[in-house]
Amino acid sequence: QGMNFIAGYLILITKNEEESFWLLDALIGRILPDYYSPAMLGLKTDQEVLGELVKMKVPAVAELMERHGVMWTLVVSRWFICLFIDILPVETVLRIWDCLFYEGSKIIFRVALTLIKQHQAFILEATNFPDICDKFKQITQGTLVTECHSFMQKIFTDPGSLSMATINKLRETCREKLLSQG
Protein backbone atom coordinates (compact mmCIF):
# COMPACT_ATOMS: atom_id res chain seq x y z
CA GLN A 1 0.00 0.00 0.00
CA GLY A 2 2.38 2.73 1.11
CA MET A 3 5.55 0.91 0.18
CA ASN A 4 5.39 2.08 -3.46
CA PHE A 5 5.59 5.73 -2.34
CA ILE A 6 8.53 4.94 -0.08
CA ALA A 7 10.39 2.95 -2.75
CA GLY A 8 9.81 5.74 -5.26
CA TYR A 9 11.11 8.41 -2.90
CA LEU A 10 14.16 6.32 -2.05
CA ILE A 11 15.03 5.91 -5.73
CA LEU A 12 14.56 9.65 -6.35
CA ILE A 13 16.72 10.54 -3.35
CA THR A 14 19.56 8.08 -3.80
CA LYS A 15 19.44 7.87 -7.61
CA ASN A 16 20.69 4.33 -7.07
CA GLU A 17 18.50 1.23 -7.21
CA GLU A 18 20.79 -0.92 -5.06
CA GLU A 19 21.09 1.69 -2.30
CA SER A 20 17.32 2.17 -2.41
CA PHE A 21 16.81 -1.58 -2.13
CA TRP A 22 19.00 -1.83 0.98
CA LEU A 23 17.35 1.19 2.62
CA LEU A 24 13.93 -0.33 1.94
CA ASP A 25 15.21 -3.64 3.31
CA ALA A 26 16.33 -1.90 6.51
CA LEU A 27 12.93 -0.21 6.86
CA ILE A 28 10.91 -3.38 6.32
CA GLY A 29 13.18 -5.82 8.12
CA ARG A 30 14.53 -3.86 11.05
CA ILE A 31 12.96 -0.43 11.59
CA LEU A 32 9.29 -1.16 10.80
CA PRO A 33 8.80 -4.95 10.90
CA ASP A 34 5.36 -6.27 9.94
CA TYR A 35 4.19 -2.90 8.62
CA TYR A 36 3.89 -4.21 5.09
CA SER A 37 3.03 -7.85 5.77
CA PRO A 38 -0.41 -9.14 4.71
CA ALA A 39 -1.90 -8.71 8.21
CA MET A 40 -0.02 -5.41 8.79
CA LEU A 41 0.29 -6.35 12.46
CA GLY A 42 3.26 -4.04 13.04
CA LEU A 43 1.38 -1.07 11.61
CA LYS A 44 -1.77 -1.83 13.63
CA THR A 45 0.32 -2.33 16.76
CA ASP A 46 2.14 0.98 16.36
CA GLN A 47 -1.13 2.86 15.85
CA GLU A 48 -2.36 1.41 19.15
CA VAL A 49 0.98 2.32 20.75
CA LEU A 50 0.46 5.91 19.60
CA GLY A 51 -2.96 5.85 21.26
CA GLU A 52 -1.35 4.74 24.52
CA LEU A 53 1.36 7.40 24.23
CA VAL A 54 -1.28 10.08 23.62
CA LYS A 55 -3.10 8.89 26.78
CA MET A 56 0.15 9.46 28.70
CA LYS A 57 1.31 12.70 27.06
CA VAL A 58 -1.83 14.45 25.73
CA PRO A 59 -4.66 12.90 27.79
CA ALA A 60 -7.32 15.43 26.77
CA VAL A 61 -6.97 14.42 23.11
CA ALA A 62 -7.06 10.72 24.03
CA GLU A 63 -10.25 11.30 26.01
CA LEU A 64 -11.84 13.17 23.07
CA MET A 65 -11.00 10.30 20.72
CA GLU A 66 -12.42 7.76 23.15
CA ARG A 67 -15.57 9.77 23.84
CA HIS A 68 -16.39 9.96 20.13
CA GLY A 69 -15.29 6.39 19.36
CA VAL A 70 -12.57 7.43 16.91
CA MET A 71 -10.00 4.69 16.39
CA TRP A 72 -6.42 5.85 15.90
CA THR A 73 -6.17 3.86 12.69
CA LEU A 74 -8.72 6.21 11.10
CA VAL A 75 -6.66 9.33 11.64
CA VAL A 76 -3.02 8.22 11.52
CA SER A 77 -2.79 5.16 9.28
CA ARG A 78 -1.59 7.24 6.28
CA TRP A 79 0.98 8.97 8.48
CA PHE A 80 2.49 5.64 9.46
CA ILE A 81 2.09 3.54 6.32
CA CYS A 82 3.49 6.21 3.98
CA LEU A 83 5.98 7.59 6.52
CA PHE A 84 4.43 11.05 6.10
CA ILE A 85 4.87 11.18 2.28
CA ASP A 86 2.01 13.16 0.77
CA ILE A 87 1.12 14.26 4.31
CA LEU A 88 3.94 16.67 5.15
CA PRO A 89 6.16 18.85 2.92
CA VAL A 90 8.94 16.96 1.11
CA GLU A 91 11.79 18.74 2.91
CA THR A 92 10.24 17.90 6.28
CA VAL A 93 9.65 14.26 5.25
CA LEU A 94 13.27 13.88 4.20
CA ARG A 95 14.48 15.28 7.52
CA ILE A 96 12.15 12.87 9.36
CA TRP A 97 13.54 9.98 7.31
CA ASP A 98 17.12 10.95 8.15
CA CYS A 99 16.20 10.65 11.82
CA LEU A 100 14.20 7.47 11.22
CA PHE A 101 17.18 5.69 9.66
CA TYR A 102 19.48 6.98 12.39
CA GLU A 103 17.32 6.62 15.52
CA GLY A 104 14.72 4.05 14.52
CA SER A 105 10.96 3.86 14.71
CA LYS A 106 10.52 6.05 17.77
CA ILE A 107 10.87 9.02 15.39
CA ILE A 108 7.45 8.23 13.91
CA PHE A 109 5.92 8.50 17.38
CA ARG A 110 7.82 11.72 18.09
CA VAL A 111 6.48 13.30 14.88
CA ALA A 112 2.90 12.16 15.56
CA LEU A 113 2.99 13.27 19.19
CA THR A 114 4.43 16.66 18.23
CA LEU A 115 1.71 17.25 15.64
CA ILE A 116 -0.96 16.30 18.18
CA LYS A 117 0.55 18.20 21.10
CA GLN A 118 1.20 21.37 19.08
CA HIS A 119 -2.40 21.36 17.86
CA GLN A 120 -4.08 20.09 21.03
CA ALA A 121 -6.33 23.13 21.47
CA PHE A 122 -7.39 22.99 17.81
CA ILE A 123 -8.16 19.25 18.00
CA LEU A 124 -10.15 19.75 21.21
CA GLU A 125 -12.48 22.14 19.35
CA ALA A 126 -13.88 19.10 17.52
CA THR A 127 -17.43 18.23 18.48
CA ASN A 128 -18.06 15.03 16.52
CA PHE A 129 -16.46 12.12 14.68
CA PRO A 130 -16.14 13.76 11.21
CA ASP A 131 -14.85 16.96 12.80
CA ILE A 132 -12.08 15.05 14.60
CA CYS A 133 -11.02 13.39 11.33
CA ASP A 134 -10.98 16.78 9.61
CA LYS A 135 -8.87 18.34 12.39
CA PHE A 136 -6.29 15.55 12.01
CA LYS A 137 -6.04 16.30 8.29
CA GLN A 138 -5.57 20.01 8.97
CA ILE A 139 -2.82 19.63 11.60
CA THR A 140 -0.42 18.35 8.95
CA GLN A 141 -0.46 21.71 7.18
CA GLY A 142 0.78 25.18 8.04
CA THR A 143 3.95 26.82 9.25
CA LEU A 144 4.65 24.24 11.96
CA VAL A 145 5.55 21.64 9.33
CA THR A 146 6.79 23.91 6.54
CA GLU A 147 9.52 25.33 8.78
CA CYS A 148 11.23 21.97 8.98
CA HIS A 149 14.25 23.06 11.04
CA SER A 150 12.13 24.28 13.96
CA PHE A 151 9.70 21.36 13.53
CA MET A 152 12.56 18.87 13.82
CA GLN A 153 13.75 20.61 16.99
CA LYS A 154 10.23 20.33 18.41
CA ILE A 155 9.98 16.58 17.78
CA PHE A 156 12.90 16.10 20.15
CA THR A 157 11.56 18.42 22.87
CA ASP A 158 7.74 18.51 22.79
CA PRO A 159 6.94 14.85 23.44
CA GLY A 160 9.40 14.75 26.33
CA SER A 161 11.10 11.51 27.29
CA LEU A 162 10.33 8.67 24.90
CA SER A 163 12.55 5.64 25.23
CA MET A 164 12.63 2.58 23.01
CA ALA A 165 12.13 0.51 26.17
CA THR A 166 8.78 2.24 26.76
CA ILE A 167 7.79 1.83 23.11
CA ASN A 168 8.78 -1.84 23.07
CA LYS A 169 6.83 -2.54 26.26
CA LEU A 170 3.76 -0.82 24.79
CA ARG A 171 4.25 -2.73 21.52
CA GLU A 172 4.26 -6.02 23.38
CA THR A 173 1.04 -5.17 25.26
CA CYS A 174 -0.75 -3.76 22.21
CA ARG A 175 0.33 -6.66 19.99
CA GLU A 176 -1.00 -9.21 22.49
CA LYS A 177 -4.28 -7.28 22.69
CA LEU A 178 -4.63 -7.21 18.89
CA LEU A 179 -3.83 -10.93 18.58
CA SER A 180 -6.37 -11.82 21.27
CA GLN A 181 -9.05 -9.86 19.37
CA GLY A 182 -8.39 -12.03 16.33
UniProtKB/TrEMBL annotation:
Gene3D superfamilies: putative rabgap domain of human tbc1 domain family member 14 like domains, Ypt/Rab-GAP domain of gyp1p, domain 3. The keyword Transmembrane does not apply. It comes from the Eukaryota. InterPro entries: Rab-GAP-TBC_dom, Rab-GAP_TBC_sf, Rab_GAP_TBC_domain. Coiled coil: none annotated. Keywords: GTPase activation. Residues 1-104 form the Rab-GAP TBC domain. GO terms for molecular function: GTPase activator activity; small GTPase binding. May act as a GTPase-activating protein for Rab family protein(s). This is GRTP1 protein. The lineage of its organism: Eukaryota, Metazoa, Chordata, Craniata, Vertebrata. The gene is Grtp1.
